[in-house]
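G., the chain you wanted modeled:
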Amino acid sequence: MLTLEVKTRDSKESLEDIRKQGLVPAVFYGRVETATPVSVDARKFEQVFRAAGETTIVTLKGEGLEKDTLIHEVQVHPVTGKLLHADFYVLEKGKKITINIPLEFEGEAPAEKLGHIISKALHEVEIEVAPQELPQHLVVDLTMLKNVGDHILASQIALPPSAELKTDAEEIVASVTEFHEEDLSVAPTPVAPAEVAGAEPAEPAEGAGESKE
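Predicted structure as tokens:
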């Protein structure tokens, strides 16, 4: 579990002044939690954000508080990539959370070795899970795909014991389609001008071909 030290801040304080101090302005809130403005050390937060993403619990500590949270949203400067602001969602103790979890495809499909095409239709699924069992990702085993027509359903993804799948169980996550190589050796049949759709043979002009006296 990751931890961040936070300090409460005055919501009227200039955000730019906070950033100049090497801090990132942030706020934590929840379903039963009042929104509270805080600030975190910019370098430490960047390290935690790179490691946690949005699917790892981050415990906020400092000034007598301790909150288990998820990084809900981060604003990033479009040019410099600098982290500008963060939202933390506070988890309720003893309550499950509903969240989208990214999928990680592992293994090589036997069908792909035979030259067929593996199509990946889903890259995340929604689950309801206890916070202590929250996974960073869910594994999809591609070695199950052996023949054309084989597919993996959302219901076949292994979940933590406390988790319940919210995505439609019949959603196809990955499938095999047959590879067809286009035959370029056959030249197209030439089309005579008169065979062009809508074309009519030209009528000879009046008097054409007649000998002059």
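The mean pLDDT is 88.

Shout if anything looks off.
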